[in-house]
């Protein structure tokens, strides 16, 4: 599998695709790029995998624009196949899985990790593989934060930014308490039923009413997403779960004035039924404060959830194709990372840490490690380091729950996975059929160890004999009408 190794022994998985070598080259930089063909006329046979040169750089052509695709929030690049099929016959694509997503990270979970570090990961990966300035595609709130901060820190690497499912810019999420409480039920379930009920709630946060639809496509998507969550972020892998959730609960360390430096054209699509970040909330922040951009192409997709790139792939691809046709600048010149500029930007943003990080301390950093671009405060680092240790202990020493679906094969696995000396009989297990398929034997649980693993108010939840229902306010949040549910106006697109 292809990995790019970053400082700190961090290894990120990547894929790269582009037009077949027998395709005739365009006429050069002045070429007017047409919209990519629809999937009906464009298939995986019309593009190739791009390999590495002996010197470790990607074998990229200099006459074709390059796209960067970040894995969807908490998922992996296998969910991007329709996007690859649509765009790889005409564009070059460099796709990357962020830390603790998919096949990344083969390395330690670091307490100083935040979205600025993740943005630096992308920039460092581009430099390591000699990827030129690119058009960046982000699906979901995490990738949105990474893409935007890549524009801020390393603007020379970004030609345009496509955001499909955004988050909040200037404060932690409005419903951060609900997010955190849901995480605790997810990380520390009392029993298996507690765990699966929480996964149902998480699925509804991402898929909205698509979570409960009964058509085969919606059921298959929900099953696939939930199984990914079970494999990647179950209680036996809590440090990875912490790495993908904790940064989203923090202050983004941005103010309205900080976005004036974003000059790249931006496409922003957001679901009208988004239960993570209502469309009205996003409308009041992102397009409003990106007015320095060359273009802000903003659309609310009526009836769509947060993961609209997965529920509405053809529509999203159509929007991006038109956007790229307007802004498909060809710049094949490899530009070295301007680390000094990025550190100066970061030093200016340090004012959002309430004095806990001094700008002069940031300017003394070397910029040779992605973590040099962190805005996590020393106190947060200490607290998170302790959490990582306790979370690791919980999975190794405390949790004895059995999770069907935990050992289902990843889509890239060639053979049936074997765990603990047994062949996985749960290969076809899905959340939609769990009551039919569950044949697990309840394993005895050990009591809490002497170190008393706990987080917040959950210390006494480990002793609870029965599974409580999810808190009422979580259920109310999932069932309440959203401010953006009945949006109207010229920026909206109605989906039947």
TrEMBL record:
Pfam families: Abhydrolase_1. Signal peptide: none annotated. It comes from the Eukaryota. Residues 78-313 form the AB hydrolase-1 domain. Residues 23-48 are annotated as: Disordered. This is BZ3500_MvSof-1268-A1-R1_Chr5-2g08116 protein. It comes from Microbotryum saponariae. The lineage of its organism: Eukaryota, Fungi, Dikarya, Basidiomycota, Pucciniomycotina.
